[in-house]
């Protein structure tokens, strides 16, 4: 009986174990090996040694350094900004009754749309071509400024579009999570605060924030992880040749090394991916430490 | 401070959208609550007593009518300017703050000339904590305390800014039976010490009767009777109030007034002295359990009113006689002396009635006739 | 205090409340516009003629002569229909296989007793930390070695397992009282029957959540399909859009591009509008458990 139960259990688990083994566990070991194999050749499947060379190469590659810089800028700008704005919007949503469902539904729309597709729309709204300055420039002109080329122009103009789009894409999830976190705070606390004459600001900082802080930390942590893995939003705005646009990200660099025009270097790709993993891991641990310290208990 | 209501009414749209008519949670309240008393707002659940409380503290605004605190019209005043303290049913203690911080919370809201120094606040917190006797718990979090202790903290928090009115919403409902009795005495004591006009809402008549200086009995938004607990119990204004007050509840019979005498099921139970000049006709008769009296030999073999004996329950201090009657629904109860000689195996038992404990109500309007 | 000062306070409180409401609605409206405008713009542009679009140096916020020619182009000049079919096949198969793998694994972890269960589950959980980017490199090589590039198998196989979903469902399964399982065993119900007749119906909301999340993920997936397909007959919509952007429609036919974008976005938006309550509840549940 016991033995039969054992076999049955493993049978139920077999598909999951097989898939995870082949496509997650093995690759995990493999990527480590790749990253230390020097001069690996995909065609002949040979290498001529092991060591830190791949890491050194990647860390000295100007494209990789650019990618790190871009990624960090995107993370630092979009994570706090999107979380903050989402919090404001959720507070607004929670304070109204009429139209609330409608607003919530509208705000969630970007979540279910193909980011590659909508990115193209953003690109067109911001792009300046010989035929047209584009929609955004038309608005800027109303305020008396000259046209800016957001897609092929100065670095910070491109970065602005990038961050703007990233925030637009991540907002639905954050608004959704924060609205439900806010709704889960028992109304009676607000009533009590109101009777005691607590100002709205103080109610927010002393009651609302502490009570939803676990969810905020959760959003910040997942926001950091997500933003560090930015890639397809970049492709959506600037096309596949991100290096040429100077807008590549770490994940973009990994894929470029693996495939595409510059591809065929799984060792470099592996080293870059492991560096990314180290960064994300460190930041997450720091986040968890901070949130652990600040949590309610 | 006294509180006066003038035609106070609150309507809500019906939650069941198919019903167009509004729900009237509070219907035309016009009465006065005297200064410095403990008032129990009593009624079955859903009768609008919590809405009434919310109107007094300003969490809700009335559809029509006025509320006065002394002579001031506070009807449209936001809660924070009314000087009310409120203890919520779930206590609403902030879980992330210590007891000290919880009690201090209202004080920290004070602005301008009312602003207090840290030391003043500490002093007031300690003062409030002493009133409810929780000085030694100040550094705990709400989670680390029992229900009764949380209740005291909630009271301390509402007292700390010296409100003109203290409101308590079902203050005992989250406590177990033993704590309930202890806490209700506690509330009485606190009210006595502070002298603050205190209104508490409850659906438990025993709770309201036991500690209130005055009770307000209401049903579906309408106030039925206001008065001292004993007066309301002894002199219910209608069948609802009579049924709602008292444990065990009042026994209700179909009766008839014939030729100026009161009959229940063919037996004449009370005579002309009692009925006086009430018109003949069918009536509803309510008899308190203690209104049944045994004959002198205490064996229940003689009396004006015979019933079908079902069981004898010994309660210690007194005895509860369970019986049925053709003119009443379900099982009925009489409370008699414990030193009686009733034969428990007998099928019938006879009682005399104490006329002060018998009430006659109109069958149609349920209003009190005698 | 006098009545007069109470009057002033009452009025001030009312004004403050109204002002706050106006400001709140204003800002909510602004963000609503920010969200909706790109959708409006892509729909508007998709109905503008090629000529009239390019003649607008200053873009117009409306069009007086809408045309559906762009939609015809989108489905004829580029194989948009094919991309659609591919994406649907990919989404349906991936989601279906994923649900089976997940349900079985979650069942084994939540109800069956076997040696090494706790160790294995810990291993599973630790896999949750591994970002996809780390394993994609080897998977790319594996699939290439197996000769599965430009096949549905190659697209689907690495995408069918999610440790997170197994975890989510296992947690949910465990909330079903153990007594129910014992009762079923006493009645002689087989495990499989119990799983499909009792557990899945009870945990239907979670299963639906998983399906919703997976479908959205599949519909939008870009990176893996891009690595594994270079033959346009196997492109999914995301890759199709990128292909259209870089090589489609000849020179910069933006209205036609927008028509393709609209065509790609519409199915998911329609599904969302119909089931928006369920979908939002599902995403919220999936998000807050993590």
Architecture overview:
The complex is a heterotrimer of chains A (297), B (370) and C (290). In chain A, helix 5 (115-126) packs parallel to helix 10, helix 9 (200-228) packs antiparallel against helix 13 (266-294) and helix 12 (250-258) packs antiparallel against helix 13. Chain A has helices spanning 2-36, 53-60, 62-95, 100-108, 115-126, 135-142, 155-183, 187-195, 200-228, 232-238, 242-245, 250-258, 266-294. Chain A has 297 residues and is mostly helical. Chain A is built from 13 helices and no strands. Chain B has helices at residues 49-57, 99-108, 118-131, 147-159, 177-194, 205-211, 229-234, 239-244, 272-275, and strands at 3-12, 23-29, 32-33, 38-42, 64-69, 72-73, 84-87, 165-169, 197-202, 214-219, 222-227, 251-258, 261-264, 267-270, 281-287, 292-293, 305-314, 318-324, 332-337, 348-353, 358-362. The longest helix of chain B is centred in the middle third of the chain and has 18 residues, at 177-194. The mean pLDDT of chain B is 89. In chain B, strands 7-8-9-4-10-11 form a six-stranded mixed sheet, with helices on both faces. In chain B, strands 1, 2, 3, 5 and 6 form a five-stranded antiparallel sheet that branches. Chain B contains nine helices and 21 strands. The two termini of chain B are 36 Å apart. With 370 residues, chain B is an alpha+beta fold. With 290 residues, chain C is mainly alpha-helical. Chain C has a domain at 78-248: MetI-like (MetI-like fold), CATH 1.10.3720. Chain C is built from 14 helices and no strands. Chain C has helices at residues 3-46, 50-55, 69-76, 80-111, 117-127, 132-145, 152-156, 163-174, 178-186, 191-202, 204-220, 223-228, 237-247, 254-289. The relative contact order of chain C is 0.13. The model of chain C has no long low-confidence stretch (mean pLDDT 86). The B-C interface holds B 71-78, 81 and C 1-3, 6, 9-10, 13-14.
Q: Can you give the mean pLDDT of chain C?
A: 86
Classify the fold: give the CATH topology of the domain at 78-248 in chain C. Answer: MetI-like fold
CATH architecture of the domain at 78-248 in chain C, by name, is Orthogonal Bundle
CATH homologous group name of the domain at 78-248 in chain C: MetI-like
**Secondary-structure element pattern of chain A, one letter each:** HHHHHHHHHHHHH
Largest beta sheet of chain A, briefly? Answer: none
CATH class of chain A: Mainly Alpha
Number of strands of chain A: 0
Largest sheet of chain C: none
Strand proportion of chain C, as a percent range, falls in under 5%
Radius of gyration of chain C: 26 Å
In the CATH hierarchy, the third-tier topology of chain A is known as MetI-like fold
**Shape field of chain C:** flat
Greatest chain-chain interface?
A-C, 90 and 91 residues
Mean pLDDT of chain A, rounded to whole units?
A: 87
Number of helices of chain A: 13
* Sheet/helix structural class of chain A: mainly alpha
């Amino acid at each position: 009986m016991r033995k039969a139960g054992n076999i049955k259990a493993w049978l139920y688990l077999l598909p999951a174990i097989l898939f995870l083994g082949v496509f997650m566990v093995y690759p995990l070991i493999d990527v480590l090996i790749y990253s230390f194999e020097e001069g690996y050749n995909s065609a002949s499947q040979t290498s001529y040694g092991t060591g830190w060379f791949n890491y050194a190469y990647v860390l000295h590659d100007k494209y990789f350094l650019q990618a790190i810089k871009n990624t960090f800028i995107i993370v630092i700008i979009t994570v706090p900004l999107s979380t903050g704005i989402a919090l404001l919007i959720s507070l607004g949503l929670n304070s109204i009754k009429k139209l609330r469902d409608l607003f919530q539904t509208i705000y969630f729309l970007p979540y279910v749309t193909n980011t590659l597709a909508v990115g193209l729309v953003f690109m067109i709204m911001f792009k300046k071509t010989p035929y047209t300055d584009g929609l955004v420039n038309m608005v800027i002109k109303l305020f008396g400024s000259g046209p800016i080329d957001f897609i092929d122009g100065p670095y910070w103009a491109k970065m602005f579009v990038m961050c703007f789009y990233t925030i637009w894409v991540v907002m639905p999830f954050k608004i959704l999570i924060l609205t439900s976190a806010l709704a889960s705070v028992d109304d009676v606390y607000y009533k009590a605060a109101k009777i005691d004459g607590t100002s709205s600001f103080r109610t927010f900082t002393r009651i609302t924030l502490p009570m939803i802080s676990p969810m905020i930390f959760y959003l910040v942590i997942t926001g950091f992880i997500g933003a560090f893995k930015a890639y397809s939003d970049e492709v959506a705005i600037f096309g596949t040749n991100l290096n040429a646009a100077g807008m590549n990200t770490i994940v973009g660099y990994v894929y470029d090394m693996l495939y595409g025009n510059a591809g065929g270097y799984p060792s470099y790709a592996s080293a870059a991916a492991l560096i990314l993993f180290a960064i994300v891991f460190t930041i997450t641990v720091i986040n968890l430490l901070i949130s652990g310290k600040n949590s309610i208990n | 401070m006294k509180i006066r209501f003038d035609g106070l009414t609150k309507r809500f749209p019906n939650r069941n959208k198919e019903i167009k008519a509004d729900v009237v949670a509070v219907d035309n309240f016009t009465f006065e609550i005297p200064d410095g008393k403990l008032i129990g707002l009593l009624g079955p659940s859903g009768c609008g007593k919590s809405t009434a409380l919310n109107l007094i503290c300003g969490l809700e605004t009335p559809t029509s009518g006025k509320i006065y605190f002394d002579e001031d019209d506070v009807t449209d005043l936001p809660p924070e300017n009314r000087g009310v303290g409120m203890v919520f049913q779930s206590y609403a203690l902030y879980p992330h703050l210590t007891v000290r911080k919880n009690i201090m919370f209202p004080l920290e809201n004070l602005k301008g000339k009312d602003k207090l120094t840290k030391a003043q606040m500490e002093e007031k917190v300690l003062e409030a904590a002493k009133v409810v006797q929780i000085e030694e718990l100040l550094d705990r979090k709400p989670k680390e305390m029992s229900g009764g202790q949380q209740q005291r903290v909630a009271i301390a928090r509402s007292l700390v800014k010296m409100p003109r009115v203290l409101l308590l919403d079902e203050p005992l409902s989250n406590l177990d039976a033993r704590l309930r009795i202890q806490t209700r005495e506690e509330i009485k004591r606190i009210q006595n010490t502070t002298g603050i006009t205190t209104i508490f809402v409850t659906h438990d008549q025993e709770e309201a009767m036991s500690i209130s200086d005055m009770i307000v009995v209401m049903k579906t938004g309408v106030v039925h009777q206001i008065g001292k607990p004993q007066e309301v119990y002894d002199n219910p204004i209608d069948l609802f109030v009579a049924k709602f007050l008292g444990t065990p509840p009042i026994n209700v019979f179909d009766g008839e007034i014939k030729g100026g005498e009161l009959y229940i099921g063919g037996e004449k139970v009370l005579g002309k002295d009692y009925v006086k000049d009430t018109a003949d006709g069918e009536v509803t008769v309510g008899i308190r359990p203690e209104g049944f009296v045994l004959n002198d030999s205490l064996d229940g073999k003689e009396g004006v009113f015979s019933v079908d004996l079902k069981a004898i329950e010994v309660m210690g201090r007194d005895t509860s006689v369970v019986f049925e009657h053709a003119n009443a629904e379900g099982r009925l109860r009489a409370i008699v002396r414990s030193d009686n000689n009733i034969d428990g195996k007998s099928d019938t038992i006879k009682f005399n009635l104490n006329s002060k404990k018998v009430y006659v109500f109109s069958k149609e309007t349920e209003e009190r006739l005698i | 205090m006098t009545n007069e000062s109470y009057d002033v306070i009452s009025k001030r409180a009312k004004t403050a409340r109204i002002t706050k409401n106006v400001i709140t609605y204003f800002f909510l409206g602004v963000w609503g516009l920010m969200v909706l405008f790109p959708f409006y713009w892509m729909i508007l542009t998709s109905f503008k003629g090629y000529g009239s679009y390019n003649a607008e140096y200053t873009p117009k916020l409306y069009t007086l002569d809408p045309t559906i020619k762009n939609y015809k182009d989108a489905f004829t000049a580029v194989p948009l229909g094919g991309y659609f079919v591919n994406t649907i096949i990919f989404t349906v198969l991936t989601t279906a296989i994923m649900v089976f793998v997940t349900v079985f694994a979650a069942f084994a972890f939540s109800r069956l007793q076997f040696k090494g269960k706790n160790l294995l589950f810990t291993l599973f959980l630790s896999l949750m930390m591994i970002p996809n980017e780390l394993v994609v490199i080897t998977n790319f090589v594996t699939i290439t070695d197996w000769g599965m590039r430009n096949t549905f198998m190659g697209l689907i196989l690495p995408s069918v397992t999610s440790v997170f979903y197994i975890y989510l469902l296992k947690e949910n399964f465990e909330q079903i009282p153990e007594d129910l399982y014992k009762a079923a065993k006493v009645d002689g119900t087989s495990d499989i029957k119990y799983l499909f007749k009792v557990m899945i119906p009870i945990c239907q909301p979670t299963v639906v959540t998983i399906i919703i999340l997976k479908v959205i993920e599949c519909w939008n997936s870009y990176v893996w399909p891009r690595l594994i397909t270079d033959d346009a007959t196997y492109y999914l919509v995301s890759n199709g859009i990128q292909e259209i952007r870089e090589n489609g429609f000849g020179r910069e036919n933006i209205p036609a591009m927008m028509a393709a974008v609209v065509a790609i976005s519409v199915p998911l938006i329609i599904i969302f509008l119909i089931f928006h309550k369920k979908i939002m509840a599902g995403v919220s549940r999936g998000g807050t458990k993590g």
